[in-house]
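thread: overnight batch results

M.L. [08:02]
morning all. the overnight job finished for the chain we discussed friday. pasting input first so we're all looking at the same thing
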Amino acid sequence: MIAFHNVSKVYPDQVPVLEDINFKIEAKEFVSLVGRSGVGKSTIIKLLIAEERPSKGRIVLGEYEVSRLKAKEMPYFRRQIGTIFQDFRLLPTKTAYENVAFAMEVGGHPQTEIDDLVPKVLDMVGLADKALNFPHELSGGEKQRVAIARAMIHRPSVIIADEPTGNLDPINEADIVRLLLKINELGTTVILATHSKDVVDGLGRRVITLDNGKIIRDEKAGKYILN
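M.L. [08:03]
and the structure it wrote out:
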């Protein structure tokens, strides 16, 4: 499904952010990326969604060689990945329904398909009754559920969650993690970048630990350990 082959990333006039990174993630896996701030987690995500290019090495996602994507391939590639961020990134003047529908409108989907699919996805994340609410009328946990619905609307093969619970209280954090597990159980690969030891230790899933731009630990049922 996903493979990093000898990947390094060096920004101009800086020491390497990533050095000789190698790992594979199989379809339907749930993997946590952990490490202190600045160790390279966000860079791995940017490389995986083709927001950045590696300085060296190859990145593969399914049939795509991410490190060599052409501009015309990008829209199709991006539909393979749903991305969730800490700050939600919702459009403030659109309702929950409209935020999710907008992702389909940009993709050129017909209105009949939008009308059919958006309510189903909002129901899946437990927000059927909040479809007409604007972001300022939603709690932090509800905003993140809208963001997850938006990420899922293209039925991606991979969900990448970059600190998705960083702005949430423990109860909402637990709800979002349960939702990500549900999505994974339905067959979607999930990559979770997080600082939360409680989340990682509670999952009992594979953990890749980064330090100083290198993988220092990769365990199938890992814990959040940084030393």
